[in-house]
């Protein structure tokens, strides 16, 4: 893997202007793993106004000393196209490189943002403020690449260890979201890129959180309460959309973080079910999510799989093989709505997921349920949601411990759904005026 020519050009221009410049952050970690970085960041001793003199068509609209530099291709497209690159606009065809002045951060009173940002004198001082050793490396781009690694990040990357830079309690006290990020990195960095890569930093076993770092997370987990729900949601979704989603959720529980994110999910831990299940309520939800993740189902199915039985502990009556959970699908839908609203998911997201949860317990048996009943199901769940509803049923089955996700009757139901979907099931579908 090579550093993109656009990144090299930014560094060359800064160096020609008399400044130091380095590739930094997560892209260095991914570069060493031979995984494609999502973005490329540069750190420099140039001040923001000096960066903008070198790159006149850049943007500086934040208080974190970061200047957004447009690639030459974007600059040729002109200002109108360039405006699409402003924060909040995403376009995969447009590229940007964030250039940030070396900085150090003072006290974090709110556990989220530094009270004051100061200029740092060196790249080493800048790296010292970062969260984990695997993210605290820099690349000097000369005739030969040199890795600047003051905290032994390469060694931790090779050994698959997530370790805080310096004192872990200080790092998590600065920004409590870093605790979820630790779980996210441990969950996601052992993915396909590493398994397919020949890099010595990409062995197949999973990442682990270093013992002192894990202890600090457990001790400080309550700090998560001061973090915005939007930031928590975004990190949570990176875990849920990963191949190891269920393992990531369990890691959050072990670290003491899940109770501050989805406490309702923890209510099912060790709560036994009945003769139709071999797992407890919590494990059933994780097994369902695991299947959805392995099948690469979309976010709606994954979240519905995680939340579809979340009210079972509250609905449980009796013990042992004959325990019942009457009405759990209705209460689970209500709790799912509360959880998704609390985590600031969009209305579209929670409307769709809540509908999947509410309808997940539909009954269908070949020869017993007619076309009219299937039409009512399609009308209740929505024709646009039927594929996801069937995927949720498959995940639910595997989560219950059955060996087959899609038995004959589910395949037959698919056929009937396709059949009745060609018929008008609402006035809107009729060609009348």
Automatic annotation (TrEMBL):
It comes from the Bacteria. Its cofactor is Mg(2+). SMART domains: HDc. InterPro entries: Bact_CCA-adding_enz_type3_sf, HD/PDEase_dom, HD_domain, HDIG_dom, NT_sf, PolA_pol_head_dom, PolyA_RNA-bd. Keywords: Magnesium, Metal-binding, Nucleotide-binding, Nucleotidyltransferase, RNA-binding, Transferase, tRNA processing. The keyword Transmembrane helix does not apply. CDD domains: HDc, NT_ClassII-CCAase. Residues 277-410 form the HD/PDEase domain. GO terms for molecular function: metal ion binding; nucleotide binding; nucleotidyltransferase activity; tRNA binding. SUPFAM superfamilies: Nucleotidyltransferase, Poly A polymerase C-terminal region-like. GO terms for biological process: tRNA processing. The keyword tRNA processing applies. NCBIfam families: HDIG. PANTHER family: CCA TRNA NUCLEOTIDYLTRANSFERASE 1, MITOCHONDRIAL. Belongs to the tRNA nucleotidyltransferase/poly(A) polymerase family. This is HD/PDEase domain-containing protein.
């Amino acid at each position: 893997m090579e550093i993109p020519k656009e990144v090299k050009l930014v560094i060359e221009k800064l160096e020609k202007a008399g400044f130091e410049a380095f590739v930094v952050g997560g892209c260095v970690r991914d570069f060493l793993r031979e995984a494609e970085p999502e973005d490329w960041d540069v750190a420099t001793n140039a001040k923001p106004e000096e960066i903008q003199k070198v790159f006149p068509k850049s943007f500086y609209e934040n208080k974190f000393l970061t200047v957004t530099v447009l690639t030459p291709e974007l600059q040729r497209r002109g200002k109108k196209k360039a405006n699409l690159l402003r924060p909040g606009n995403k376009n995969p065809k447009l590229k940007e490189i964030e250039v940030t002045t070396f900085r150090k951060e003072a006290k974090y009173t709110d556990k989220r943002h530094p009270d004051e940002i100061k200029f740092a004198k060196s790249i080493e001082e800048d790296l010292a403020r970062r969260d984990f050793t695997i993210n605290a490396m820099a690349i000097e781009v000369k005739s030969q690449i040199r890795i600047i690694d003051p905290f032994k990040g390469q060694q931790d990357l090779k050994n698959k260890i997530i370790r805080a830079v310096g004192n872990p309690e200080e790092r998590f006290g600065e920004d409590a979201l870093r605790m979820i990020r630790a779980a996210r990195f441990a969950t996601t960095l052992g993915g396909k890129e590493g398994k397919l890569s020949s890099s010595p930093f990409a062995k197949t076993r999973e990442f682990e959180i270093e013992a002192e770092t894990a202890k600090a997370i457990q001790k400080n987990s309550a700090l998560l309460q001061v973090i915005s729900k939007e930031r928590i949601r975004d990190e949570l979704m990176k875990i849920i959309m990963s191949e190891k989603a269920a393992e990531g959720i369990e890691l959050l529980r072990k670290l003491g973080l899940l109770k501050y994110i989805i406490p309702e999910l923890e209510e099912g831990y060790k709560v036994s079910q009945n003769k139709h299940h071999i797992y407890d309520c919590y494990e059933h939800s994780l097994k369902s999510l695991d299947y959805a993740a392995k099948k690469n189902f979309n976010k709606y199915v994954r979240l519905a799989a995680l939340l579809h039985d979340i009210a079972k502990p509250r609905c449980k009556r009796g013990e042992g093989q004959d325990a019942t959970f009457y009405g759990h699908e209705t209460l689970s839908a209500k709790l799912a709505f509360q959880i998704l609203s609390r985590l600031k998911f969009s209305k579209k997201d929670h409307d769709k997921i809540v509908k999947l949860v509410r309808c997940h317990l539909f009954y269908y048996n070949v020869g017993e349920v007619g076309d009219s009943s299937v039409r009512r199901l399609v009308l209740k769940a929505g024709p646009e949601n039927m594929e996801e509803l069937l995927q949720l049923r498959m995940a639910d089955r595997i989560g219950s411990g059955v060996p087959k996700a899609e038995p004959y009757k589910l395949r037959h139901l698919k056929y009937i759904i396709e059949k009745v979907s060609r018929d008008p099931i609402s006035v809107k579908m009729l060609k009348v005026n």
